[in-house]
Specification:
It is a single chain. The chain has 254 residues and is an alpha/beta fold. The chain has 2 domains: 124 residues, Udp-n-acetylmuramoylalanyl-d-glutamate--2,6- Diaminopimelate Ligase, Chain: A, domain 1; 110 residues, NIF3 (NGG1p interacting factor 3)-like (Udp-n-acetylmuramoylalanyl-d-glutamate--2,6- Diaminopimelate Ligase, Chain: A, domain 1). It is 35% helix and 26% strand. The chain is built from 11 helices and 13 strands. The strands form 3 sheets. Strands 7-8-10-11-12-9 form a 6-stranded mixed β-sheet. The chain has a 5-stranded mixed β-sheet with strand order 2-6-5-4-13, sandwiched between helices. A two-stranded antiparallel sheet has the order 1-3. Strand 10, helix 7 and strand 11 form a beta-alpha-beta unit. The chain is elongated, with a radius of gyration of 19 Å.
């Protein structure tokens, strides 16, 4: 069994701190005891209160998330604040939390590589500021409608929004989460289609004028493939570690 500190050092070796954006806060979020052994771990996109309660009730030692548990400075530690309340629960029950946010967006094998792999893109390569986005080709050309339905199935999305620039889909650029700032870069790279979790009405309306298909598939659904990456780091560090995926999505479509 590995300790919390040993396991965190493994993550830092794969997802280095140098990749983190200056405005971000991620890394070792909660650590009641660095020498605690980790036998059971959860991978999740968000450390929701439901996730915290589940980890405690089922005696997990560690939660690894994409979105940071603690993002803004805390000036107190009381049960009146929902983030502070989660931290108190975790410390009282000996559960540690690692969060890897912008550095997991950028790192090779991270958020956008996992998304490109889920889509079956071939020869995917980085593009855009910080080499954050990925662009590659589908094995064969598809209509936008067929691609949207296929995407919804592959990602398990509740919905997919597509704005048609009257292109068939072959060269796809993508940024998981909120990636609307990368559309121009995608155009310059020759993409006929750009996919992200959230683009917004005004940009989606401009698809035909820009000459690129635009697709929204949900912030959660375009980032959740990264949980495979986190689980892989855990299992390669300790093959006897029990790993469970927790669905933290609290946004529902009716």
């Amino acid at each position: 069994m590995m300790t919390v500190r040993e396991l965190y050092d493994r993550f830092e070796a794969v997802i280095p701190l140098a990749l983190r954006e200056s405005w971000d806060n991620d890394g070792l979020m909660v650590c009641p005891d660095a020498e605690n052994e980790v036998r059971k771990a959860i991978v999740t996109l968000d450390v929701t209160e439901e996730c915290v309660d589940y980890a405690i009730e089922n005696q997990f030692d560690l939660i690894v998330s994409h979105h940071p548990l603690v993002f803004r400075p805390m000036n107190a530690m009381t049960e009146d604040d929902h983030v502070q309340r989660k931290v108190i629960k975790l410390v009282q029950n000996g559960v540690s939390v690692f969060s890897f946010h912008t550095r997991a967006d950028k790192v090779g094998g991270g958020v956008n590589d996992c998304l490109a792999e889920a889509l079956g893109l071939e020869d995917a390569r980085p593009f855009g500021e910080g080499d954050l986005g990925r662009i590659g080709t589908l094995p064969e050309e598809m209509t936008l409608e067929d691609f949207a339905f296929r995407l919804k199935e592959l990602l398990g999305s509740d919905w997919v929004l597509a704005s048609d620039a009257y292109n068939d889909v072959r060269t796809v650029a993508l940024v998981g989460g909120d990636g609307k700032g990368y559309i121009r870069d995608a155009l310059e790279e020759g993409a006929d289609t750009f996919l992200s979790g959230r683009i917004g009405y005004n940009m989606m309306e401009d698809a035909s004028g820009l000459g690129i298909n635009l697709i929204e598939a949900g912030h959660y659904f375009t980032e959740v493939p990264v949980l495979r990456f986190f689980a892989k780091i855990l299992s390669s560090s300790d093959p006897y570690l029990q790993i469970e995926r927790y669905d933290s999505n609290q946004i529902r479509t009716f």
